[in-house]
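PROTOCOL LOG
Step 1. Enter all chains and additional molecules of the complex.
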Amino acid sequence: MADKARPTSRDVAREAGVSQATVSLVCGGKWHGRVSERIATAVREAADALGYRPNLAARNLRTGRTKTVMLIVPALTNQYYARLYTGAARVAAQHGFGVVLYPSPADGGPARNPFGSAPASLDGVLASSMAADVLADFDDGGRPLVMLDSDPANSRAATTVNLDVADGMRQVAEHLLALGHRRIAHLAAGVESWTFAVRSRALAAALEGTGAELRTVRAALTMDAGRHAAETVLRAPGRRPTALLCDFDVLAVGALKAARRLGLRVPADLSITGFDDLTLASAVEPELTTVRLPAEEAGRRGMTALVSVLADERPVRPADVPVSLVVRGSTAPPA
Amino acid sequence: MADKARPTSRDVAREAGVSQATVSLVCGGKWHGRVSERIATAVREAADALGYRPNLAARNLRTGRTKTVMLIVPALTNQYYARLYTGAARVAAQHGFGVVLYPSPADGGPARNPFGSAPASLDGVLASSMAADVLADFDDGGRPLVMLDSDPANSRAATTVNLDVADGMRQVAEHLLALGHRRIAHLAAGVESWTFAVRSRALAAALEGTGAELRTVRAALTMDAGRHAAETVLRAPGRRPTALLCDFDVLAVGALKAARRLGLRVPADLSITGFDDLTLASAVEPELTTVRLPAEEAGRRGMTALVSVLADERPVRPADVPVSLVVRGSTAPPA
DNA sequence: GCACTCCGGTAGTACGTATAACTCCCGCGA
DNA sequence: TCGCGGGAGTTATACGTACTACCGGAGTGC
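Step 2. Run joint prediction.
Step 3. Record the structure below.
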């Protein structure tokens, strides 16, 4: 009775009494002026009746396009990247693209370049800055590449989409300065990456000439690392910083724990700021003053750029995505 | 000079002085007893020299397999599902499968069934329980389906992989009972789903005959909803519950905020427990006593099951994944 | 009335691979 | 010497689609 095999365009053609080519034209959507309205509807009806779905593998083989792009991020368990994915996936879906994630080591993938065994061929790649090492041995045959949060000058990317983290850093710094802070510690990411370099530069620039004193300490990307780094800087000899400016919300939460452990009240004795505005930031007490990074928007813009590159090879560099300071309860004037 | 076009197996064959079929055999790995060692190495050398990569679209078309599976989860921005993905992706990669995510509405996908426009065909599907509504109009032509956290009796799944949430709930309940709590409120998920039904039943069963009093209030899956629900139950007339048992860490964090707002100390005046053990759980103060759900392990087992179904059609139902109670600072004996 | 255009549709082919069926040849037992 | 099994490669084909090139016929200008 019910054929196990899925119907092909040829089956639809037989059902509708036309040729396979006509079915392809109609289903491909480009039949205007080629096929009459009457035949077109007949084809569509036949397709519906049979439950026809085009075989994507065959289409891909024929067209050389897979309608699939890859997103490379360090770890999806980091909510920032999950949001990035969300935005990117939405735009991709709107343009009929599927998104496959790079199986990064942090997410359990193989350490080596997995493109050899990639199950799907790719039309293009959207990569976040953190994955620079991954891109080093990236060998996919020169497909279009769009980078996120990376140095526009230094890459083989068709174009680059960046968040305006420099402005974000400037806003935090000015916020702390306005509150009266003059001894500031920077809990910086212990990772080589363009965004973090930009942040450090922006912070230094914002503090320049204000008489504020800046100390920098680096930490890995975990809460515990943040706590340790914060304890180190808070216990260091000399006058204690009155504000702790962190490169991530996660680090800031670690710093919060360190402060509590040392008996410091936040924000009365110590102001702490984050970066990202994850769910985490408004979960803790006090809620974090932080820089909101519109990760979804970044993902959307990145994918939009990639799709447009894929469509007409016109690499247009979009403007930086604006970020905004969100003032909450973890900052106050120094004692 | 450098051909823009990627080399095909035929190019490799010409280079190595053999037929295309031989190249296919060698690259496919199934040449033992068919091709001599000498020729095989020659083929591999030629392939390396030309930088040959098999065209996946052609392979898919020929074999009818795509080596791609879909993972359906409600929202990747929920860390639980991100972890689930991580585990699933690792196993998939080990077996040469790629994972494409269902573009769920929460992640920005189209509300309707996207399989019509899916860019990649699928060999199978791994779906989390929450996505029951999605599966309703799931029309992919009867590909193998493995479910996560759903009713084993009631589904068209080849098999089902579940976390032992009933045991988790029992452990929480016994923990609270052992501490002396007798008035307990359950902040339950306001979503129809098998796991939550199981949790509620397990809780009721654990409290049965202990003289403990149970009140249930439902909340949507956000921190704010948790806060509101907790305020409602804490302000209700009659004697206030001494423990708040939440179906999610996120709800528990909301409850924490509610307690703080009402001037209740946690855990002195009110014990709160979560479920999931997300990063969030150990970020807040006090850190949450919660049930650790090994999401990665669940993803691994689910994908393992799917892969084995795909390989030999042998639907083996794995044992429930054990969960464990993590006692932290948010629970204590009642005042 | 004839050539010419344009509309509506079809036949045929190629995309690159996997694999069934086949050929060739060498060694060996009868 | 002949037949035969089987090792080592090859030939040929099909997967389902998109799209180029073609073709019949109706309308049109002169």
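Step 4. Note key features.
The two ends of chain A are 82 Å apart (CA to CA).
The longest helix of chain A spans residues 295-312.
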